[in-house]
Amino acid sequence: MTACAIEGGSAGAAATADPEAEPEPEEPGEPARADGSGLLPASTAAGQADEGNGGTEEAEASSTVTDARSHADAPPPPGGFTLTADGAYAARLTAAPGPPGERAWYPERWTLDGPEPYAVPLPLDQPEEPDSEVSPLADGRVLIRRRVADRQMFSLLYPTGPGTGELLLGAVGCAEMTLLPPSPDGRCVYAQAAGADHTSLWLVAGGAFGPEEVARIPGHCSGGVWLDRAGRMLALDRQEPGGGPVKAVAVDLGRQGEVTPLLQIAPGSDDRLLLAEPDSGLLLLRSDAPGHDRLGWGVLGSCLPVRFPECLRLPDVAVTPFAVQPGQMLMPESCAVALRIDGAPGSWVGVWRPAGRQLHQFAAPLGWVPGAGYWSRDGVLRLPYANGATPCGVALLEAPEDVEPSAVTGRTGGGEGGGEPSAADAAPAVCKPVPLGQAPLHGAARPD
């Protein structure tokens, strides 16, 4: 494992370059126009040069069209939407019909690797509590974590004809526990119980004798990102006992939880790992080493500096990566990254590549659970959604090509005064129009 330096500093393991404050971005770009549901036309891409690379990249316009729907969204699941590492299965809590304040929650498994996606309800005799968590396994079963008083109960659920089968796994005497993302091997599920002085890692499914503690790590841990395909190397964001900055560390589950440093950008910075792609080694992280929280990227095992792209720094919204394109062996800069963009009007989708340094923005399908999705190896983003017309659907979005600034021609988005875009060319109905900077914003429509 190698720690990386900030872009602009010296390269090398555990480098501690002193970051300088960066200028405010000039061209934040425009989100896509929304009309009903699906991934809809007139998305624009705002791309500024990465920090330290000089210059400002111009924007590109691209379009993707699917059928529009006007039906109401299904109620959002309280515990989110969890996908297996290969995207074959997903699980969530969903609500039975009823008044909003009296909804009965039950687990639901989605099958996504067939010709058509479909959902299988897994209700039991009693409804589930909204704070329960579910996680799918590669064999189609679904793990559920329930809190009962000061204990955590674990079971495996599976369809049995018209009913639901349940295999009790056991309990852990712990008041608070959180499931980690599904293991890449598809067989195991881990959970963490974080305390003030130490964090316990538990294998709650896939073991021989029910839930078992597999590691105890000094400090308070959060997050959870898998670094390999075997499900052995796990990254956690750890704060040392007694306080101090948060640093991502690697935990080797094959060596009784041996801990090694993973990210140490600056001595006092909070450096958290958000995503990792084992094939290419691409890492997506968040750090305040530049002086404030920024999204950055690096390469696992590399001594090259961490970069903090300007195009991922948008005003008045939160940008969070949720999926990375697999299969790009030794080509981290070519991986397409899907990002969840949250603003006051709602959530939509961003697509970005490190090499392109452009952020393409799209409206999300109606009923999308923000942050749920996965990439195919050939660069197609699959976004699961459910609404009144489609109880189980997947919207497809092909990663757009990045256009070099010299190849982009077209209109000027901001006019001479660099003001707000017009109503015809601005953000979708669900998004707030973003003022343009002084530099002109050029766009060229790509044919469907």
Describe the protein's architecture and organization.
The protein has 448 residues and is mainly β. It contains no helices and 30 strands. Strands 2-1-25-24-23-22 form a six-stranded antiparallel beta sheet, with no helix packed on it. Strand 24 and strand 25 form a beta hairpin. It is globular. The relative contact order is 0.18.
Structural topology:
Blueprint: E1 43-46, E2 60-62, E3 81-83, E4 89-95, E5 105-111, E6 118-121, E7 133-136, E8 142-148, E9 151-160, E10 163-172, E11 178-179, E12 189-194, E13 198-205, E14 212-218, E15 220-226, E16 233-239, E17 246-252, E18 258-261, E19 271-277, E20 282-287, E21 294-299, E22 318-324, E23 337-343, E24 346-352, E25 359-362, E26 374-375, E27 380-385, E28 393-398, E29 411-412, E30 442-443
Antiparallel strand pairs: 1-2, 1-25, 3-4, 4-5, 5-6, 7-8, 8-9, 9-10, 11-12, 12-13, 13-14, 15-16, 16-17, 17-18, 19-20, 20-21, 22-23, 23-24, 24-25, 26-27, 27-28, 29-30
What is this structure, in a nutshell?
Helices cover about 0% and strands about 40% of the residues. With about 450 residues, the chain is mostly beta strands. Strand 27 (about 380-385) and strand 28 form a beta hairpin.
What's the total number of strands?
30
The global form is globular
Give the ordered list of helices and strands: EEEEEEEEEEEEEEEEEEEEEEEEEEEEEE
How far the N terminus sits from the C terminus, by CA atoms, comes to 43 Å
Arithmetic mean of pLDDT: 77
Roughly what percent helix?
under 10%
Q: Low-confidence parts, pLDDT < 50 over ≥5 residues? A: 1-74, 406-448
What class would the helix/strand composition place it in?
A: mainly beta
The largest sheet is: 6 strands, antiparallel
Binned strand content? 35-45%
Which strand order do you get reading across the main beta sheet? 2-1-25-24-23-22
What is the radius of gyration? Answer: 22 Å
Alpha plus pi helix count: 0
